[in-house]
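--- STAGE predict ---
source: upstream dedup step, 1 unique chain passed
mode: sequence only
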Amino acid sequence: MMFLLKRWCYIIKNSGWKGLLLLTVVILVLIIIDFLSECQDNHCLVNVFPQHIRGNIFPEHLDGNHTPFTTDTLSQSPDIICSGTSLRTFAPANNSLISKAEWESLVTDLQWPFPPVDFLSPQEATNSTKCSFSVVNSSLSHTVGGFVDVILTARDSKNRPKTYGGDFFQAKLYNTELKASTYGAVTDHFNGTYTVRLALLWPGPAKVSIRLVHSSEAVQVLCRHREQEPDKVYFLGHFEEGVKQETAICNAQRSSRLLGDGAQCCCEYKELVTGEEWFCQQPSSLPCHALTYHSMGGYQAALSQLEKTLLQSKDIVLQGDESVIYVKPGNETRSQTKCRPGLHTSVPSGFYLQDHWTSLVCDSKTFPSAQLVSGCLKNKQILMMGDSTLRQWFEYLEKTVPTLKRLNLYTSSQSGPFEAVDLQSNTRIIWRAHGIPIRTSKTPKADLHYIAREVEDLAGGPHSVVVFTIWAHFTTYPLASYAHRLAIIRRAVSSLLQRSPSTLVIIKSANTGYKDVYGSDWLSWQLDLTLRTMFRDLPVVLIDVWQMTSCHYSPDNIHPPPVVIQNEVDLFLSFVCPE
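--- STAGE serialize ---
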């Protein structure tokens, strides 16, 4: 730069204004090049994709200059996972169960495109009533085993086409009369247009349905508050010693709200085996070891009026092409692969027909009678750990098999633990909550065991089945907190499979049904992808209920109806009894 300055002075003196203009242009070009280089080093290029994820599933007439972004196979290079929030600030310690390389890879996989400009009004956000879609070549002859493609255009409330992506859509192909449906992956082209590829899996008529779950603007509200406001849900610790009782605010990590003025902070609880931590404000007159009960505290998200408006937008099915797609009988779509650990989950992973789910992952079975269910569970010791969506499995089995009797353990009706036994088939099933944090009624803290601790204490064996799910109570926490919990569970599962390889470990995925800042389908989906990624190298089973709940005709509910639960449990039993 000093050389350029001297040269500039020389030209002014000897060459006049033409030479000065030429050198000024050269300097500006050099400055821009230097800036772009620095910007690249700091990952300013938001929508950059590695070549290997560019597929051929998109119609040829689409603009090929837009790099596709598929919500089922995320891969992107920027550091910032949501607007204004960098996750690279998480630095794993030397003894961390997540390496720096794994964490950075995970952040890359979860990268989400965000609006390139600040928005000032809800009128600028994507509006589901203004969006539209069309089916490509719906009038052509189609057969089972083929595909149809859909083009979707997003618009704002003023009916202006969006010029950037990031909206969270869910799509399906369905037939109401046949009670048939299947899930479709939505691909973002970063320019306000999206494409969907839907598999044709049953003969007969079919129609397309797409709904906007969250606008790109709402997604950024969810992401930002997840990372920056971890205590928007808080809990209560109930301290008791003799006749004295006190209540204090508790949570899974330190925060300004938890710390308060710092005068009485904090009680720290660390699980000795797994290292998991919990924090409570220091009671005024009782010691920390007097913590006896746990309960839900309340909700305290600090949302602006604009953010509230964006999140209150209704989840509406888009108006679009109502063409009926007629599908002729064709290739067999049923998988012939034996249900076993380690299988890849395809998109779609299956389909409903007459309310029966057929898996495309493996040769799934149905268990329509108590005798068949009981026979499958014979001589099995099943440990279920998770939230109320997994508790539904326990309750379904209890209701379906008359000889399976629940013991009265005098525990919480929400968080358990529950135990049921069948003396005739020598079956024992336990369900318990996955430990804190969990939103539940007042419960003895001693009953809330961490998943990893339970797995560490398990001998395992050919008659042992471990089932867990963990996501619904972690949607309010930063991604790093959830990943750390999964890493602890992964270590315990890995140790179990090393000492007892014949143990069957099954993971139930997240399901759809959440719709606000405390629990949203987008938040759930991000956690679900994190779980899938972190356990993909272990010989475990993943029961994909995300697709099963997303495409079913029943109303959105975090707790699916009995018909969906039956299909989920049938798929679970197909892995327990694959023969």
